[in-house]
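Work package 3, deliverable 3.1, input record:
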Amino acid sequence: MVSLVISLLAGVTFSPHATNFVKPLDYTGSQANLNSATLYFSRLVLGVQLVLAGVQLPSRYLQKEWKPLALLLGPIMACMWVASSLLIYAMVPRLPFLHALAVGACVTPTDPVLSNSIVKGKFADKNVPKDLQKIIVAESGANDGLGYPYLFLALYLIKYTGEGGLGQEGGVRTAIGLWFGETWGYTIILSIVYGAAVGWIAKELLHWAEENKFVDRESFLVFAITLALFIVGTCGMIGSDDVLACFIAGNTFTWDDWFRLETLDDSLQPTIDMLLNLSVFIWFGAICPWSLFAHNSVIPIYRLIFLGVLILLLR
Amino acid sequence: MSANTVGTSSSRGKSCHSWATIYKLKMPTLAVTNFNIVCSVLGGFITLFGLVSYLFKEKFYLSEACKPSTRLDTGSLTNWSL
């Protein structure tokens, strides 16, 4: 946690805001390229993180613990969504409620990168019970992908009913239809099926290759990470939810606990984890348009700080 | 007058377009971007090559450094890092 804040500050220090060592806008050329580079970078980091989170969970975890997980991901997440949206609606002047719902959906999922830091390390081992650690990992892994339905419900409603629905045919009915068909059917279900299929095939292949002694140590250790790379690429290509697919794939990959126990004492995965974390937070620090916090047309800074504190408290 | 009408209609068309591009809410389409291609190719290749890496390195003697100790066997797994 502390290391991430420090790397964020380091990013600000090296960025054009201060010392101008790291110049993201120069590297990418335009703001649009910079935005897509950030998106790709975040997807890559999240994908690897979530495969590793899925690998860390014990055997058949999603099957055994589906009840508390469903409670956390269904009603509790919906409550968090509504609560944050109401707060945003209340605090931001002149914002339509549907837009507040969309913004609320973006802050609802807990971040697996940050939540990892409270369930790992000495402090966590002493103070957080093992079962709680596991359920936090599982919840934060799954809810990143499951934030999609909330976001897209709001976006579809804005598009088809909002005052900005310029020339769009249909009303609430079209919006809800599209929401079920595309968001649930195409994005969520497809990515779960795809992730499970890829994870399972990878597990079978690795078993087969290991039995025939075709795999060397390095490739064995790096297998989960390259699997993440593959899923981020292919799942992004079919336009589905790559983050959720990565988590599900990581979990099915160690369905029989084999890979997790084999790599338990190895430090390669936490190392890669840390490398990606630090670099992505330095990047965020460097690209974040910090001056917009103070001067923008949406919300004054004192209200924004108050809103942040309220969201943290009420969640 | 007619030019004016054309101007307004085209600007309306433009704003409609920008709305649709901001919210990418169209039918699911293939996003064959460079990043996705590179990720799939690299990930797929390293994964598949990893499955037969020992075969290539040790059996076919294609590796310049022959390191029998890096062979995956269950006995050396736990104290590999030592």
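Residues 7-42 of chain B form one domain.
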